[in-house]
# Entry
Amino acid sequence: MRSSKGSIGRPNSGGAREAHRERHLAALRAGLAASAPGPLTHDERDDLLTMREEEKVARDVYLRLFDRWGLRPFENIGASEQGHMDAILVLLDHHGVPDPAQGLGVGRFRSPEMQALHDRLVQEGLQAQGTAVRTGLVIEELDIADLRAAAGRTRRPEILAVYAELERGSRNHLRAFHRWMRRLGIQYAPTHLTEREFHSIATSEHERCQ
# Structure
């Protein structure tokens, strides 16, 4: 098992998927290299650190739930969350901010809040397939809400571009879990988005991502 900076576990082992992810990250690094990093505001720094750990929460929970239930969305979306983690790490590296996930294995976090969030989500998701799918919906809702809030606290184009890309991915993830929700015949009430926002995303078309 490798550290959280690289690929770990089954969801990140697909050759084509890994190659695509590396090409995308290389393009992101090349784009950032053309511009000076400049100082971050307190909010920008805190938001990048939070999103790095929050994406790790998503990845680590999905790894655990895929091992338990074997449902394909947890495998595919877990791999995508690795890409989200890596994109935030590129921004952290560019701006000289230490990685809060450095050296931490699956399920381990430096932030007590993120550790508690991860543990609660895993506990809920292990109860049944239906609660696992609900857990996925909660995670994607939270990601979307937090990415939108963070985007409102920065004007930096490189950060806004990454947040926008990650939000598109999270919207696609929410759509995938929503399809499984309907397939399993379970009910779900949004907790981080309004009912209108949730259903607008869940019932809209898949978006193209990098």
Summary: The chain has one domain: 20-202. The longest helix spans residues 42-69. The two ends are 26 Å apart (CA to CA).
